[in-house]
Specification:
Blueprint (H helix, E strand, L loop, with lengths): L2 E4 L6 E4 L8 E3 L6 E7 L2 E5 L6
Antiparallel strand pairs: 1-2, 3-4, 4-5
């Protein structure tokens, strides 16, 4: 079953696909920010920030 969460940047609804995996990156279609799926159970997301090397 798909899950719906709010984008932490713009509050737009984001649909998390049924086959989503932890650490997967999805894009908000409204504001373009990259969202990382931290956990699926319970569902936890955060704005993705690339680690500088």
């Amino acid at each position: 079953m798909e899950m719906v969460v709010s984008c932490p940047e713009c509050d737009e609804n984001l649909i998390i696909p049924v086959d989503a995996e932890e650490e997967e990156i999805i894009d908000c279609e409204n504001c373009g920010v990259e969202i990382e799926i931290v956990s699926l159970d319970p569902l936890e997301i955060r704005i993705f920030e690339e680690e500088e090397k």
